[in-house]
Design a protein that fits this description.
- By secondary structure, the protein is α+β, with helices and mostly antiparallel strands.
- It folds into 2 domains: about 90 residues; about 230 residues, Bira Bifunctional Protein, Domain 2 (BirA Bifunctional Protein, domain 2).
- The chain is about 40% helix and about 20% strand.
- It has 11 helices and 10 strands.
- A hairpin with a 2-residue loop joins strand 7 and strand 8.
- Helix 2 packs antiparallel against helix 4 and helix 5 crosses helix 10.
- The protein binds 3,4-dihydroxyphenylalanine (DAH).
């Protein structure tokens, strides 16, 4: 066998051996056997002197190539094994820093606020400004500025919680009409004001000592009852759907003249008459009217030059009809079984 063939044969043998390397020990013994000074391949170099001239260089080259191939195979195995060692080490030293997470319950939004937001969206889209007023109100604004002087019988219906003889928890959001007009100083305005109201009512299925209203007021030259009607019809259709019938019924409020109450066809029976609508086919949802000249005058507006309409929407009333809620107290009892039904999914 030629020396060249021997180099090839030894190389193949060693490469074959390299495939058996499987751990650190076999890697080390391979290195000692095939890559040390005394290795078989190096031993072959001693035969170089048997060759002549050009052959010498060729042979040296082939031994070198073989050595490189062996070195490469060794390195490949060494890398693989080191990687495995590292992985094993990492696996062994792994620290579990995870903890089971806390169970955060996602709550629902009280339908009171769902409906309040919806009412506001409808009016904001018509260009109304949103105002806020104080829960604690003076007798002056709550009653007098609303054309309810002392000893007026309408006070009977709105008995409140008094802080002192001149200060009370507001019984309706209507005083915000007077605040808004004060602020505007005689200029036209369009505003809504959502808020809480309080009355000394005994709580039952339809009464709560605390409830919400959204007050609305539009004042300017030439504002008419037709504007009021169109506005509230649009509101009802947006809130309750196109098919809802709207009915305006004459009524009385001290701060409006004329005054109306707005009914919508009963969503339970569709207008035929049932226990929900007490057989009438209609359910009252709000009070409204043309702002009384006295109210305009007291707020610095000249009733001969401007007119206005106002309305007060009961938030719970709308929410109860919208979501078929049968007891007003449910809004305030913080029962998760109730609230959970209003989770946004
Ligand atoms: N403030 C009235 C109430 O609480 C509701 C109301 C009626 C408001 C007519 C108005 C209105 O603005 O024009 O019963």
């Amino acid at each position: 066998m030629s020396l060249f063939n021997q180099v090839e044969e030894i190389k193949q043998k060693i490469l074959h051996e390299s495939e058996k390397i499987s751990d650190e020990a076999s890697l080390k013994s391979f290195q000692e056997r095939f890559l040390s000074k005394k290795s078989e391949l190096n031993g072959l170099m001693s035969h170089i002197k048997e060759l002549a001239g050009e052959e010498k260089a060729k042979f040296g080259q082939s031994v070198n190539n073989a050595r490189n191939a062996v070195q490469e195979a060794f390195q490949k195995k060494a890398d693989e094994i080191n990687q495995k060692i590292l992985e094993r080490k990492l696996e062994k030293e792994k620290i579990d820093i995870s903890l089971p997470s806390m169970n955060y319950e996602v709550g629902g939004i009280n339908p009171f606020y769902l409906v309040q937001d919806e009412i506001m969206d409808i009016f904001v889209s018509m260009g109304y400004e949103v105002k806020e007023g104080p829960d604690v109100e003076s007798d002056e604004y709550n009653f007098q500025r609303m054309n309810i002087p002392e000893s007026h019988p309408a006070r009977e219906m709105q008995d409140s919680f008094y802080i002192d003889p001149r200060t009370l928890l507001r019984t309706h959001t209507s005083p915000e009409q007077a605040h808004a007009m004060d602020e505007k100083g005689g200029k036209p305005l369009m505003m809504i004001c959502p808020g809480k109201c309080f009355r000394r009512d005994d709580d039952d299925v339809t009464h709560s000592h605390q409830f919400g209203q959204v007050e609305g007021l539009v004042v300017g030259p030439g504002i008419s009852l037709a504007n009021l009607k169109a506005t509230l019809e649009l509101f009802v259709r947006k809130m309750f759907g196109e098919k809802r019938e709207v009915r305006f019924r004459g009524s009385y409020f001290p701060f409006t003249e004329p005054s109306v109450e707005v009914d919508i066809s009963c969503m339970n029976c569709g207008g035929k008459g049932c226990s929900t609508c007490k057989g009438t086919g209609f359910i009252e949802i709000l009070g409204a009217g043309m702002v009384h000249p006295n109210v305009l005058r007291m707020s610095g507006y000249d009733p001969d030059k401007v007119s206005g309409f106002a309305f007060g929407i009961g938030i719970e009333r709308v929410a109860m009809l919208r979501y078929k809620i049968d007891d007003i107290r449910k809004f305030y009892q913080s029962d998760v079984r109730f609230i959970e039904q209003f989770k946004r999914r």
